[in-house]
Amino acid sequence: MNSSITNTKPVRFLEGERIYLRPFGEEDTAEYFQMLFNPEMRRLTGTKRAFTLEEVRRYIEEKSGNHDTILLLIALSDSDQIIGDIALQDIDYVNRNANIRIALDKGEHLGKGYGPEAIKLLLEYAFGILHLHRIELQVFDYNERAIKAYEKVGFKREGVQRDALYYQHRYHDSIIMSMLEEEYRALYHQGQ
């Protein structure tokens, strides 16, 4: 492999003001593996099982080669520090819909607007480049910070799956939220 390629700065696939989204590289596997064991991130995402490094490597390879998923890392623009990941999944190009998920690694990155900025970048790509019509997500009822962030970005509540997750000795509801392309354009592209 050409050494000039391996020593370059990370690719900035979608760039915002304070963060950018980029594809995974082979060198990211170990750091992503560590992120999957952050207790707060596991709680907020309802993650239950443990993963091996090899399972994580295979997951990244599978998703990277899959046309119905876009899996990206979230990195800080000023330092290139990885702070989480975001994915557009189950992309249905016929019916023009998909779901979105996001996870930030550490509490120090929560509440600073990085999540909404990353979501807006991926929504711009989903609606403006992929020409999707509907993006949905699911969030657990105890993740109030995320619910507020999703509503602030423009997602609307559609329904509730009652007792959908068993975590920490009790059942929790899963809230289904979505955004349609015309809602996105009304919020972010008026007058264009």
Description:
It is a single chain. The chain is α+β, with helices and mostly antiparallel strands and 192 residues long. It is built from seven helices and eight strands; from the N terminus they run αββαααβββαβαββα. The protein has an eight-stranded mixed β-sheet with strand order 1-2-3-4-5-6-8-7, with helices on both faces. A hairpin with a 3-residue loop joins β1 and β2 (19-23). α2 crosses α4 and α5 (114-128) crosses α6 (144-153). The radius of gyration is 17 Å and the shape is globular. The model has no long low-confidence stretch (mean pLDDT 90).
Low-confidence stretches: none
The largest beta-sheet arranges its strands as 1-2-3-4-5-6-8-7
Q: Give the % helix.
A: 25-40%
- Quaternary form: single chain
Secondary structure: number of strands: 8
> How many angstroms separate the termini?
44 Å
Overall pLDDT confidence: 90
Q: What best-fitting shape do the alpha-carbon axes yield?
A: globular
Round the Cα radius of gyration to an integer and report it: 17 Å
How much of the sequence is in beta strands?
25-35%
The structural class is alpha+beta
- Give the ordered list of helices and strands: HEEHHHEEEHEHEEH
Largest sheet: 8 strands, mixed
Q: Number of DSSP helices?
A: 7
